[in-house]
Amino acid sequence: MALIDLSKKEVHCKVVYYGPGRCGKTTNLIYIYNAMSDAAKGKMLTIETKGDRTLFFDLLPLNLGKIGGFDIRIQLYTVPGQTIYASTRKLVLKGVDGVVFVADSLKVRKAKNIESLQDLANNLKEHGKSMDEIPMVIQYNKRDLVSSPIPTLSIEEMKKDLNPQNKWPDFEASAVKGAGVFETLREISKLTVKYVAKKHLLIK
Ligand SMILES: Nc1nc2c(ncn2[C@@H]2O[C@H](COP(=O)(O)OP(=O)(O)O)[C@@H](O)[C@H]2O)c(=O)[nH]1
Ligand SMILES: [Mg+2]
């Protein structure tokens, strides 16, 4: 749950980047970190990484300015994707206010994307939440690989697998190059702040 500090007039929201291993969650956060001004970002914390893999989580705090006299702070988290870290994935979702589901455009990752979305649904349920209630945005990442010889999924196929009813706003991205990264962040921030404000009756 979002933390509201009335004395400091601050709202803290938690957004989790979820998705299968190596889909580009950490790459999204690194791009955001490098592009933001020092005033707008805190320290990016990467806990226990081995090579380029997230073993626990990454955390990036951002200041998004003021709404209704309140300072809006967003903490971006990622989860480790590998199967053996199931309990960490569940833990990181505790108190989540918004989710970015990052899907991998590589054809070989089709089943992993679907499995991870189902894993997200199950884990949210264990925290008493659902993907119908909580703000969510889908990102189809690694679109730069479409023009490479590596087999990739079409956007139509990915939508059919992951967003068949068009329930969630979705964006194409190439996190290594930055395309779509801020579009995704803007949308999830907007939806999350609206959700938190409404839920805690700050703004109707
Ligand atoms: N071609 C391409 N590679 C990407 C993209 N995003 C991430 N990667 C690469 O995919 C690998 C895994 O990325 P990472 O962010 O660590 O994935 P995570 O496990 O979801 O955190 C790294 O080698 C990244 O450079 C992208 O948009 N395009
Ligand atoms: Mg990672």
Question: How would you describe the overall organization of this protein?
Answer:
It is built from 5 helices and 10 strands; from the N terminus they run ββαβββββαβαβαβα. The chain has a single domain, classed as Rossmann fold. It has helices at residues 25-35, 86-92, 110-126, 155-162, 181-199; strands spanning 3-5, 10-18, 45-46, 49-50, 53-54, 58-67, 70-78, 98-104, 136-141, 170-172. Strands 1, 2, 3, 6, 7, 8, 9 and 10 form an 8-stranded mixed β-sheet that branches. The longest helix is centred in the last third of the chain and has 19 residues, at 181-199. It is an alpha/beta fold. β6 and β7 form a beta hairpin. Bound molecules: guanosine-5'-diphosphate and magnesium ion. The site of magnesium ion has 4 residues, from α1. Magnesium ion is lined by residues 25-26, 54, 78.
